[in-house]
Amino acid sequence: MDTSNYVDIAIVGGGMTGAAMALALSDTGLSVCVIEPRPPASAEAGTPPDLRISSLNQANCDFLDRLGAFDAMDASRIHPFTRLAVWEDLAGTTLPGARSRWNRTIFDASEIKADRLGVMVENQVIQSALWSCFDDIDTLSCLTPARLERLTLGEDSVRLTLDCDGVPHDLEAGLVIGAEGARSAVREQAGISIDTRPYEHKAMIVNVQTAAPTLDMTWQAFTPSGPHALLPLFAPADQPDKAWASLIWYDAPARIDALQSLSFEALQTEIEQTFPDELPPIDHISGVGSFPLVRQHAERYVQDRVALIGDAAHVINPLAGQGVNLGFQDVEALSRVIHDALSEGRPWWRQHVLLEYAMKRKWANQLMMSTMDAFYHGFRHQGLPFKLVRNAGLALAGHAGFGRRRVMAYAMGLSHP
């Protein structure tokens, strides 16, 4: 083993989960190297929000705070939300007790004496804040720009062959953590198979500036063609009455492609005609993107000297914005297992030790995937019996005190579904 080019842990992928993993291991005394194709870009003051945003629940806000990263975020681009709503489109169906087109259930953090359910923030803001915490950690290094070309598993270490901006580089590590997303090279080269199930919808993200002050509610409206969602974002300091928001539109791939080809003016008209009337007036659109929907789950999360976290291990339907929250829960669980193994003198790189992380997180992630699938598929059935059942269920959730508290605690990441 070449000890001059050796680190205890190599984290392939320096996005939100990979960077959080590096910080979570910073007090172990282990040498850690983050390998990332591109360093994070900071959001410039006064610019529109990036299309890639995350809904951080309160539990993960607290986790990032413990890592020292939450206070490092640009506070002007963080927007708290205190309420969440689930709406169903009742158009074309007359349900008992229905007073409007929409059946609504709204949950408010104040009901459980909480200040907020979570925050909306751009991914680049989170990643930049995490990276800014790297500077004072002597045991942490970064290789960027760098890409993994080949992974060679050995008994005593793992050899990583990297492409560092066209220059070959070899690195050896005691443990490799794959955190580079759904197309994980670590997962592929470690020979870990995945179960992939595409959904029938595609999702379009539209960033809009509204002619209204910032909202405090995120909502999901279920329609026959697919869900529509509003995620409130920050308002510019010089225009407090012109808040940003992210709109999510699920629909058939051909429909999304057609919508995305429209001019911003024509797309704005389509949004105003299709989204609920409660949508704030739109001033203009600043950006549009889309992606296919897929569910993906690794056959296993760990083996000797390899562990997967975040999207490298699981990709979930983004219906409730739980992807990054699950990733941070992976980080917290894996770092705890490594900490405990170190304190007890156990080989933290061995599969039988890492399985403690895998057994806890794979079950929890599978449960969340199934829960989101139940929502996704359950709201697609448009027959009257299904609508009656859903209407009754939403009404019960909206009025049952214990049920409401459980839903809100779950939304904050304080309990499991």
Tell me what you see in this structure:
With 417 residues, this protein is an alpha+beta fold. It has two domains: 3-46 and 125-193 and 299-375, FAD/NAD(P)-binding domain (3-Layer(bba) Sandwich), CATH 3.50.50.60; 79-120 and 200-293 and 385-411, D-Amino Acid Oxidase, Chain A, domain 2 (2-Layer Sandwich). It has helices spanning 16-24, 58-67, 123-132, 185-189, 253-260, 264-274, 323-344, 351-378, 384-399, 401-411; strands spanning 6-12, 32-35, 53-57, 78-81, 83-89, 102-108, 118-122, 140-143, 147-153, 158-164, 167-178, 194-210, 217-223, 226-232, 244-251, 282-298, 302-303, 306-308, 314-315. The strands form three sheets. Strands 1, 2, 8, 9, 10, 11, 17 and 18 form an eight-stranded mixed β-sheet that branches. It has an eight-stranded mixed β-sheet with strand order 6-5-13-14-15-12-16-19, with helices on both faces. Helix 1 (16-24) links the parallel strand 1 and strand 2 (32-35). Helix 1 (16-24) packs parallel to helix 3 (123-132) and helix 7 packs antiparallel against helix 8. The protein is globular and about 65 Å long. Mean pLDDT is 87; it is low at 92-99 and 383-400.
